[in-house]
Amino acid sequence: MDDIDRNIINTLQHGFPVCDRPYLQVATELGLTEQELLDRLQALLDDGTLSRFGPLYHAELMGGALTLAAVKVPEHRFDEVTEIINAFPEVAHNYARNHELNMWFVIATETPEQLQQTIDAIEQHTGLLVFNMPKINEYFVGLKLEA
Amino acid sequence: MPALDTTDLAIMRATQSGLPLTPEPYQSLAAQLGLTADDVMTRMQYMAKLGIIRRIGAIPNHYKLGYRFNGMTVWNVPDAHIDELGQKVGALDFVSHCYHRPRHLPQWPYNLFAMVHGKTQLDVDRQIASIAAILGDHNLGADVLYSTKILKKTGFRSGS
Asked: What class is the A60-132 domain?
């Protein structure tokens, strides 16, 4: 990653135009050619520096449902429970965290009813209590990390 | 509930994994969906206006940018003050997500969640101290949970 890549990452975290040639517009602002920008973006996605490039949707406004959930997994069952929980397509992300509640995951479904069904199924398959922590209020969402 | 039609849903599905890396990405989507580029751009601008598209942009992998310390800071604050405090904490430039979530007493007393990101432990310690300063006497207890491993990460990205 060089200064040009950093510039691209920092600029594109703030938004992207909706017009006929948006990459050309951004490339011009950055002093690049359209093809250079496209190539570099592809490379940043390929090597995992960017996990995604595109529209970020507000799931609940689309009619979908999301929640954050946590379980307390006994250390000797950690791999087994990871496998069970990850196998649910409704589980979008799953992180190990350094707490008694040591596994935290996001569940995304098309309807709120499916959310509860997924939680029930996870409890059944793991035998563990799922701590459901849906958001009550959102104060800020907007990740911007300087590269 | 905003008026979404099947076109919006088709656009959403087609862009769930990202925007095409072609010189005319909206034209590429249009061709794929049997629409015109104008249709796609109009609907995307409409969804952005309603907040259904939060933004179009790049999502970096924290670790790859050197942000190795990603802490979920959690706080117990009085419900009567949480909205006012949550707004202030969410406005800090190092906070990427800030939410009010339910407590699960007695095991989980925390109701305010703020994700912070730093390149060093010291960065994050300072960030936590800034949040604590804002909460002041309303800070009834806190913890910070660091992710020790990504167990699953799909293409699905959204505020959660």
From this structure: alpha beta
